[in-house]
Design brief:
- It is a single chain.
- Helices cover 27% and strands 18% of the residues.
- It is of the alpha/beta class.
- Helix 1 (14-29) runs antiparallel to helix 3 (45-60), helix 2 crosses helix 3 (45-60) and helix 3 runs antiparallel to helix 4.
């Protein structure tokens, strides 16, 4: 997975936005029926936030809605940001099947890229580095697991199925199936995120929502 495989929210049709929301819902509920949507939108902060986030990204990219529907929805997104402590800008490139486990103090730089079927836990940060060889923002592959309190700073690439331990500070690339922990984070094993990622969806959202598990 490269950053170019993740669609930009402001350049996709509504059917793709709808498929992304359905993919997120499937990660929480295991189905995409209306009762599941209502339940998780009303009572699951992570799903509520990402639903509004994805709609904001779509509306911001359309000339007919940029100055009408987008501003009030952006205000709602900001309200949820402060209420739940989740800061993921609407223009962030986030693949299908995002799962936010708990909430609070989740800080994602808008230039970060998040692949498909990723899990983000409370206290996680994907931050920007402004100088040096690692200047830029993190790029996450598919099925990446970020444990509570971890920090990934700079243009760091986390490979597919990588797992970052609690409170780890990642300053170097992590290979596919790599498990890292510590400050600074070091490679601990090649067990990857197996067992942490369930109810996966097809990463190719251009074909619509399709469950894998």
């Amino acid at each position: 997975m490269t950053e170019h495989d993740v669609p930009h929210p402001m350049r996709i049709p509504f059917r793709t936005t709808r498929a992304l929301i359905a993919s997120d819902l499937y990660r929480y509920a295991g189905n995409v029926r209306l009762p599941a949507f209502l339940k998780h939108y009303l009572f699951t902060p992570g799903f509520k936030y990402t639903t509004v986030m994805r709609l904001c990204g779509y509306l911001k990219g359309r000339s007919w809605s940029k100055w009408t529907l987008y501003p009030p929805l952006k205000l709602l997104l900001l309200h949820y940001r402060y209420k739940y402590g989740i800061a993921i800008p609407e223009y962030t490139r986030v693949g299908p099947g995002l799962f936010i486990n708990r909430f609070g103090n989740i800080m994602i730089n808008g230039d970060a890229v998040i692949g498909a079927n990723c899990n983000i836990t409370h206290g996680s940060m994907l931050g920007q580095l402004n100088r040096g060889p690692r200047a830029g923002c993190p790029v996450l592959g598919n099925e990446v697991f970020l444990a509570a309190g971890c920090k990934v700073i700079g243009h760091i690439r986390l490979g597919n199925r990588a797992a970052v331990g609690a409170n780890a500070v990642v300053t170097k690339d992590v290979p596919d199936d790599g498990v890292v922990g510590g400050i600074p984070a070091k490679l601990l094993s090649s067990g990857g995120s197996e067992g942490y990622i369930n109810r996966r969806v097809d990463p190719d959202i251009s074909k619509g929502f399709r469950p894998l598990d």
